[in-house]
């Protein structure tokens, strides 16, 4: 696949104008407050069930926690088996790519083997397109939509699918911090593609994260993405608009509330991104729209704080696979430096 987007030198300074809804911060503050109230006391509502996964060097818990609206969300919590009972482990919360689920516990061993607690979060309503499945339904309905998830609830931001998913992500961090044996001040978020987009959103909405590691992230700079790539999932939006010909402004207004290029501006944790320059699924300019804006609002609100640290690894010859497993060694070393692990 040839290079198709802006030259790298232009990507490095790419800072598009993306119109923010006037009530974006109020929208998310209200959303999170309502879901935290609906979820009740996490000491009582987060449930852990020890799983015999046949693994000697890690322990596995099947976790259920309250997400958006108090809806039950599933996750795996994988920890080093030798961790002291009173140890406060640094932790990584991982979100999953589009269509996948949390899979099986033994598929998630690397972070625990490196000394971290690892929470692998299901994505509501997904888990049946690739991988080994998920276990979290989405009990909320939708109006007319293109097959997939991008246009579910597209007529109103309050109904949109990713309002629920991003809230689930913030609540995953809340739930993990409530558990004994976890250091609440050393929680990082990560994920690739959709998981990378969710990790950016959570970094913009959750306070006090130690780091964020989004790989080839999705869900950024929607209007531009739809204009330059015909691949799904962005293609789902184009398909919807080809049918609903008078809905363009409604669609992009709704998507502006879940555009991670805007939520990235609110991040305060250091970030390690990755981008693939031949990525037709999540075009490089959409990744840089989030990366170059990282922490901008946080800095504007507190000029004394200085710029929020950010780095990006560039894979010149890769499509949407990006760095895949090649990234782990660098992410591990980078996160250890930031989390003191």
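Q: What amino acid sequence fits the structure above?
A:
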């Amino acid at each position: 696949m040839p290079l198709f987007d802006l030259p790298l030198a232009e990507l490095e300074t790419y800072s598009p104008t993306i119109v923010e809804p006037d009530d974006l911060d109020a929208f998310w503050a209200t959303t999170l407050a309502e879901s935290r109230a609906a979820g009740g006391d996490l000491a009582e509502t987060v449930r852990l069930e020890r799983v015999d996964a046949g693994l000697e060097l890690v322990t596995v818990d099947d976790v259920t926690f309250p997400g958006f609206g108090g809806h039950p969300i599933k996750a795996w919590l994988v920890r080093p088996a030798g961790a002291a009972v009173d140890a406060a482990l640094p932790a990584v919360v991982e979100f999953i790519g589009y269509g996948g689920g949390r899979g099986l516990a033994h598929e998630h061993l690397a972070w625990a083997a490196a000394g971290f607690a690892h929470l692998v979060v299901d994505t509501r309503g997904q888990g049946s397109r690739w991988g080994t499945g998920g276990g979290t339904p989405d009990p909320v309905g939708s109006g007319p939509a293109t097959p997939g998830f991008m246009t579910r609830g597209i007529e109103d931001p309050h109904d949109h699918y990713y309002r629920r998913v991003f809230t689930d992500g913030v609540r995953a961090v809340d739930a993990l911090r409530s558990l004994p044996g976890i250091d609440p001040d050393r929680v990082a978020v990560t994920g690739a593609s959709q998981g990378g987009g969710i990790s950016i959103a959570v970094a913009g909405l959750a306070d006090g994260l130690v780091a964020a590691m989004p790989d080839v992230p999705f869900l950024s700079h929607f209007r531009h993405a739809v204009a330059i790539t015909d691949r799904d999932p962005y293609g789902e939006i184009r398909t919807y608009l080809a049918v609903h010909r008078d809905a363009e402004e409604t669609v992009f207004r709704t998507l502006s509330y879940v555009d991670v290029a805007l939520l990235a501006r609110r991040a305060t944790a250091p970030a390690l991104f990755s981008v693939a320059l031949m990525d037709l699924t999540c075009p490089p300019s959409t990744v840089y729209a989030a990366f170059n804006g990282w922490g901008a609002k946080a800095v504007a609100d507190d000029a004394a704080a200085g710029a929020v640290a950010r780095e990006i690894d560039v894979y010149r010859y890769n499509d949407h696979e990006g760095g895949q497993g090649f990234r782990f060694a660098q992410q591990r070393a980078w996160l250890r430096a930031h989390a003191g692990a």
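Q: And what stands out in the fold?
A: The beta strands are 47-51, 58-66, 72-80, 89-95, 117-121, 182-192, 211-215, 271-276, 310-315.
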